Amino acid sequence: MRYDVAVVGGGPGGYVAAIRMGQLGLKVALIEEGELGGVCLNRGCIPTKALYSATKLLERAEDAQAMGIEFTAPVIDLEKLASWKDGVVSTLVDGISSLLKANGVTVYQARGRLDGTGRVALSAAETVDAERIVLATGSSPIEIPGFSFDDPHVWSSDDALDLTEIPRRLVVIGGGVIGLEIATIYNRLGSAVTILEMMPEILPGVDLDRRTIATLKRALKAQGITVRVNTAAKSIEKTSEGPVVQIADGGDVAADRILLAVGRRPNSAGIGLETVGIEPDRRGFVPVDEELQTSAPGVYAIGDLVLGPMLAHKASHEGILVAEAQRRTQGPTLQVSETRSDVTEWVIPQAIFTDPEIASVGLSEKKAKEEGCDIIVGRFPYAALGKAQGMRETEGFFQVVADAKSERLLGAQIIGAEASALIAEAALAVQNKLPLLAIADGIHAHPTLPEGLKEAAEAALGRAIHAVNR
Questions:
Q1: Under 8 Å CB-to-CB from 458, ≥6 apart: which residues?
Q2: Eight-class DSSP state of 435
Q3: Which end is more exposed in the chain, N or C (fewer Cβ atoms within 10 Å of the end residue's Cβ)?
Q4: Residue 157 and residue 79: Cα distance in Å, rounded?
Q5: Where in the chain do CATH 3.50.50.60 domains reside?
Q6: Are the C-beta atoms of 89 and 162 separated by less than 8 Å?
Q7: Which residues are catalytic?
Q8: What is the pTM of this model?
Q9: How far apart are alpha carbons 129 and 5 in whole angstroms?
Q10: Rounded to whole angstroms, how far apart are CA atoms 384 and 465?
Q11: Is 1.10.486.10 the CATH number for 356-460?
Q12: Mind listing the pLDDT tens digit for each residue in 201-237?
């Protein structure tokens, strides 16, 4: 059957692109070999955040004692917790399926592979022909020498989120976002967690200032999580008492399970790129132009397949860009009303679900200085917020970075309770190139946590009320 567009991959980039194209009146086929929603919905973002929320209750139960409210000791029913998490995922998958159907998208449950110009071969022995093809095949976890996912003691993030057991000792190899988030969950569940990061600092690929990282490390230590940086894991030694992670410079660590979370690589192999003359770079990323078109006319790539942060909302935004024009187009070129350069990588917000949460958008103080910007910086601590005190969530701070002359907001970092939600205001300001005054003069409800961002903006302008101006 022939379509206007065939989308290969039903994750947050692919299904969003398919829905928007369906809304535009295009005849769309979506090809997905697994569950709709991709890794993010089924084995990543959603189950991780569901478990983060659930296990937060264990921490809150302990906090309640300090407030004069006592409960009996919580009992963890792991099977029921896993079932609840799966139910959250299932509900959202069903919702996506309904939306695709409502927008006239035909879904093929099969693996898709490019088979020459305008053609996708399916594992179900069918072929889909389309004027344009959007590749949204996502990414997969990386293995490192000495550690294989075939080893029953080695977990991928998928294995960890299956919730089959609570290991007494969990060693996490990789101090990036995925490793830290899962470490937080299992620490709350009762595992003794050790994080091994070969780089000089945790979250090495995220543009965060030293103050933010130091605050997080202090909090992780207080929670009982051991963090070791400059520590390279080289192999596993099997002993009668379980596996031992051998460290290159000594200081081996005993474990019951080992979570390998050292990054992900784009799923560009085995999808037929060579049949249309597309050559990925050495890391597997597919080169695209400003309109996300590959070197093959009529073939587009989005999400984890292309350079940029591997974030679901970045993939979704690119899916919208590919579909955007609000008008049906003819021929192999899909016109878009906005290009990748209009919403550059640095205005994409990021949220990290550690405890406390971290969220950021735009330039850090360090990055702004490296780029030669003359800046002003404002900070405000959670501890000075009445709402945070009442929540017993006083760890962390708000930070804003702005151009010293124009006072335009260049970036913000928040570490503390609900940072993932609080970053939205700053992200809107950064993307729309608003000045600090837009936040500082905005009336924020009291007592709330968003007041902290207003206070940080006022501090940067030298007019702080609830902090000493410096």
A1: 378, 440, 464, 465
A2: B
A3: C
A4: 18
A5: 2-141+266-343, 154-262
A6: no
A7: 446
A8: 0.93
A9: 9
A10: 11
A11: no
A12: 999 989 999 999 999 999 999 999 999 999 999 999 9
